[in-house]
Design brief:
Layout: H1 4-18, H2 23-32, H3 46-54, H4 56-59, E1 67-71, E2 76-80
Antiparallel strand pairs: 1-2
Helix pairs in contact: 2-3
């Protein structure tokens, strides 16, 4: 379930990044605004910001079924789901 307050912070982080700010400067900006980290701390670390920017769930790239089984009639083969076989 999405926490509206946290979602607002995540959107802010991505918007600041798209405006050209570095993870370090984003962390400083979040502290200046008095926004707490996801774990409730007052001090943001650039690594926390970097992790959020690369997290597939925050980016919207989450692929829930990481693998698929293929049955050719005799053998089941497991392969990684690339997410490219979907019709949208």
């Amino acid at each position: 379930m999405v926490n509206p307050e946290q979602a607002e912070t995540v959107r802010l982080i991505f918007n600041l990044f798209l405006e050209g700010m570095t993870p370090h400067s984003i962390a400083v900006e979040l502290m200046n605004r008095g926004i707490k980290t996801p774990s409730g701390k007052d001090v943001w670390n650039q690594q926390t910001v970097r992790r959020m920017l690369s997290n597939e769930k925050y980016k919207g790239d989450a692929l829930l079924q990481k693998g698929e089984k293929e049955n050719d009639g005799t053998v089941y083969r497991h392969h990684r789901n690339s997410g490219t076989d979907y019709d949208v």
